[in-house]
Amino acid sequence: MVAGGMSGGPSGEFEGKITATVIISCMMAATGGLMFGYDVGVSGGVTSMPSFLKDFFPVVYNKTQEKTPTESNYCKYDNQGLQLFTSSLYFAALLASLVASPVTRKLGRKWTMFVAGIFFIVGTILNAAAVNMGMLISGRLLLGCGVGFANQAVPVFLSEIAPTRIRGALNILFQLNCTIGILLANIINWLTAKIEGGYGWRVSLAIAGGPALILTIGALMVDDTPNSLIERGKLEEGKKVLRKIRGVENVEPEYLQLVEASEVAKQVKNPFRNLLKRNNRPPLVIAIWLQIFQQFTGINAIMFYAPVLFNTLGFKSDAALYSAVINGAVNVLSTVVSIYFVDKAGRRILLLEACVQMLLSQTVIAVILGLKLKDDTPSLSSGLAILVVILVCTFVAGFAWSWGPLGWLIPSETFPLETRSAGQSVTVFTNMLFTAIIAQGFLSMLCTMKFAIFVFFSGWVVAMMFFTIFLIPETKGIPIEEMMERVWSKHWFWKRYVENYGSAN
């Protein structure tokens, strides 16, 4: 694929301004991340509320109320039904992501985000009004469909609409909104846990409807991306939107490149089958492993079950929720750090630095828990408990400025247009699959492995470090339609897979 007449700068940057249209569109689209993050954060707080447990999981409730525990402190929340409440959303999301791929390609990014918002609204109503397990799980399944559609469309929308020089920062708005959603969920859980009458958990679940409404209404107001419009044959509309978002009249070089990419895309009748071609292997392998590694850092184990985890360490319920709020605040602030550095320092340096930080944090947590939290010692001393909270926050900070946002950014910017929807679908599917596995298995793993669960996650962090060093290329400052020529074809390992890219398509 040729460059198609760039403006001539050394970075390959096309002519254009950072327009208000781009900023507003990206902020609106990124509310899909707000919904996702809120649902990640809200489940952990809700499942630690006695009123919720009493209504839906009385066996777990009775365990937590025992004055003299009859089993290990690590095991009191181990319940498959309780884990299914959390994981059901992600099992639904991984299936929805496969449907979302052709929807994104045929209807565009804009309408896929609209559909995601509708799923979220209906799921929220069912959850907040639940009177039995059927309503509760049905609501979570619909929320999962919303996550599948939003996570499919939003990162691609952000990457396609953003100017190259700030693509990383704008794409990370999705992850920033995820972290804000988690923080809001933690704060709301902390507040609603104080509501008398036992309905605080309903308020927590109902508030998820707020960001869902923002995304649904916002999707109706924004333009679809030029890439999507041109891919669907709306050439003039695509050029008009391109002028609007770039803020200049001379968009011909970028427009011609998008048309060329669209012509290549139209020749691909089955994008998923095309993904398996040799030349698409580099971005596919990177995308899949980024999602696997992202989950096996242990981050979602902490985010889903932070209040439960802190309860396990001996915090009282209110203190556990408060600690989760601190954790969420660190998550947000650290993601802002990533927005600032991702287009300056690059992707690889953030990934590598975070590996070291996460490894040290989890290793020390494992040592403290292994030495001090025994079955006959139901809690840590206040000093050690505070140290564990600090270490968890250190771990979360490292993840939040690296593997969290970059796990979504890198796949969304490296697939060629002809396989971008399918590639993002596989990315979301893999992420949701391993998120669901962690959500369904963490409390049982905590019961079985005890403190060694942090050793388990540390081993994965070491593997991530070597994977980054040898196989993840730097994509900072490369126009999105030039990744094949300027990134994969020049990488010491991946170049063997793309040598015949031009003739293969």
UniProtKB/TrEMBL annotation:
Belongs to the major facilitator superfamily. Sugar transporter (TC 2.A.1.1) family. Signal peptide: none annotated. It is found in: Membrane. PROSITE patterns: MFS, SUGAR_TRANSPORT_1. CDD domains: MFS_STP. PANTHER family: MAJOR FACILITATOR, SUGAR TRANSPORTER, MAJOR FACILITATOR SUPERFAMILY-RELATED (PTHR23500:SF531), SOLUTE CARRIER FAMILY 2, FACILITATED GLUCOSE TRANSPORTER (PTHR23500). One of its GO terms (molecular function) is monosaccharide transmembrane transporter activity. InterPro entries: MFS_dom, MFS_STP/MST-like_plant, MFS_sugar_transport-like, MFS_trans_sf, STP/PLT_plant, Sugar/inositol_transpt, Sugar_transporter_CS. Keywords: Membrane, Sugar transport, Symport, Transmembrane, Transmembrane helix, Transport. The keyword Transmembrane helix applies. This is Sugar transport protein 13-like. GO terms for cellular component: membrane. It is a multi-pass membrane protein. The chain crosses the membrane at residues 20-38, 81-99, 111-131, 137-158, 170-191, 203-222, 284-308, 320-342, 349-371, 383-404, 425-445, 451-472. It comes from Senna tora. The keyword Membrane applies. It comes from the Eukaryota. Residues 25-476 form the Major facilitator superfamily (MFS) profile domain.
